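Can't paste images in this forum, so I'm doing it all in text. The chain is below; anyone willing to post the predicted structure tokens underneath?
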Amino acid sequence: MSAEASVGGHDADSVRSVVPQPACHSTDGHRTPGLMGSKYVKLNVGGSLHYTTIQTLSKEDSLLRSICTGATNVTIDPEGWVVLERSGRHFGLVLNFLRDGSVPLPEDHRELDEILKEAQFYRVQGLIQHCLNAMQKQQDVFESVCRIPMITSAKEEQKMIATCRKPVVKLQNNRGNNKYSYTSNSDDNLLKNIELFDKLVLRFNNRVLFVKDVLGDEICCWSFYGEGRKIAEVCCTSIVYATEKKQTKVEFPEARIFEETLNILIYENNRSGPGGLHLLDSRGSGSSLGAGQSEEEGAAGGDRRVRRIHVRRHIMHDERGHGQQTVYKD
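Text version of the structure:
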């Protein structure tokens, strides 16, 4: 019996001298059988077969390293494949990240989320951070995309404007709400107003909430809101009294609309105060409106006023002979 014990001890020493040291070590004494005696590892991840090295698996302090060191128990089939009960769809990408330190990630948000879940399961911190950075970039791009809410009722619109922390620019554009024919340039000006709305959305989308109302009473009217109340209004429609029939005329006061949009930015992030209100009131009372425009101010509670700018509200014919000059009156 003592001779067998000594022989067994001698054989064990000889085995330890032949087997190479593992590429990674564990603080505890447990080793998963079959991993530490070879340089290469065969992995069966949900039916997807992968052949790699212990050195690759142990590059990061991850679940895969703990499998190498034996800190995590795994199942090894009779053919020597380490069986991992996990989908193998993205495991090749995880291995490539461990090999190269970086991998191209898909743009599809769903696939990116799946890869993040795999990285979190295997505890590969570098890949986790890589996925989070890619998601943040996608989020930044998504926030810059134009998003225009669709309003289905006046009550919903009022609630949204009252609770919105951003300034609000609303365009009422209901071409069908007209009982007269349009003048020759009205269709073009309607289109120009819509195009200007789209341009403002692209430029100020992150700072201003834009609302397009196609069911309102106005044919073409801009409204500007700050802190839940209307600050200014630019009405672009008027009635033309011709000799035989009335016509609806649509104007395109581009400069004034853009100016009011810039003015409304003072209410961004609730930055308006007494100075801001004074600035807007002085701006509204002292500015030049240009030819053919008029401005009305109505009190809306205390000293707060709404600037209403109408472009050629009433255009009347002077009843003179054919070919004579038309007179415009406010």
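Residues 125-144 form the longest helix (20 residues). DSSP finds ten helices and 14 strands in the chain.
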